[in-house]
Amino acid sequence: xxxLGRILDKRIDSLNIxxxxxxxxxxxxxxxxxxxxxxxxxxxxxxxxxxxxxxxDLRHGCVIPPLVLALAVDAKSTNDDKDEELLNKINExxxxxxxxxxxxxxxxxxxxxxxxxDKGDPDKETILNNKLRIEIYxxxxxxGILYRMLTLNTGQTPMSSRHQIEIIYSDYIKGGLEDIxxxxxxxxxxxxxxxxxxxxxxxxxxxxxxERDYLTIDRVDILDNIKSLEKLAVENQGTDLFLxxxxxxxxxxxxxxxxxxxxxxxxxxxxxxxxxxxFAKNAVKIFNKSQVMTGFGSALGKLLDFKSIEKxxxxxxxxxxxxxxxxxxxxxxxMSKLDxxxxxxxxxxxxxxxxxxxxxRELFDRKSDGYTNIEVSINEAYKQYERKTQ
Length: 390
Description:
Blueprint: E1 2-9, E2 14-22, H1 23-36, H2 48-59, E3 67-71, H3 83-92, E4 97-101, H4 103-119, H5 124-128, E5 131-138, H6 142-152, H7 161-168, H8 171-175, E6 181-183, E7 196-198, H9 199-211, H10 222-236, H11 241-259, H12 283-287, H13 290-305, H14 314-320, H15 327-344, H16 348-364, H17 374-389
Parallel strand pairs: 3-5, 6-7
Antiparallel strand pairs: 1-2, 2-5, 3-4
Helix pairs in contact: 1-4, 2-4, 6-10, 7-9, 9-13, 11-14, 13-16, 15-16, 15-17, 16-17
């Protein structure tokens, strides 16, 4: 690999490096991305004929547009770094690379290399030494990656904000977080303990926060994505907003579990018999669900827009002040209200999200009747839900 040039991208404060490489070198650099990153977008099957043509072009030494990658680990670089230092950082951290633009071309390059190896093509070495150009953003932060993913892929099948966010924050699954364990959908694990959450559900909650919408819609419209990224840019302000959101939600769950006094659902203790199984049978099970996280996320977003809070972490102090005259009654009231929603709702999950959206709005809005009061917030949230749906 050879460094051809470098430019500082001032919009995202990251050094962009232009590198000349070969098909063989690029394949060795990027192959693990395709195999190990389950969140990277899959190949587009409908364009197979186009990529067959590209494969033929690559055999004949066609010059294709540069492939664009990002290295988001601690690899902050400047124009003062020597070429050798930059290339060493890339090779030493290649497992952390993300493809921002050129994923389908990378699949095609992999197919070509596999064909050359399987068929013993006499021109194999010549073809593998054909030149490619790649751009790599060094030490780019997560907001910068989101921004570049959007702007680089505007001419292709758009990727939803939710999918972009899922890719960028997937490293928290591998690295883990203090007191928090994020579970992958593919592993089939169910969150049963305090601090366990499905990664997909947390992403839904964070996306709802960005879009101020409790419905988990995979928006793919470019303008919608730009609006989400603009909110992220304004609110990020040097912090990891996703991490701040998750830690605040986890703090709320810990508080609710603490004051629940080991509450467990007992059918004999509820005043009105439910129509079926309860929404959940203990505090942990209530608050590790997607419906609650999306309601929490969209409510916090609205509270920020209405200037009721200045930043997500402002809620942390409010959580410490949550109160309830009888928390057992509150949890049974939760189950009763959610059972009523199940009976009357056309789309149960969406209506549950709406209820929790109103619940958190009540709980954390200093102007509301239910401010930091769990009992009042439950009842007021249900009244607002009824007004909205009837």
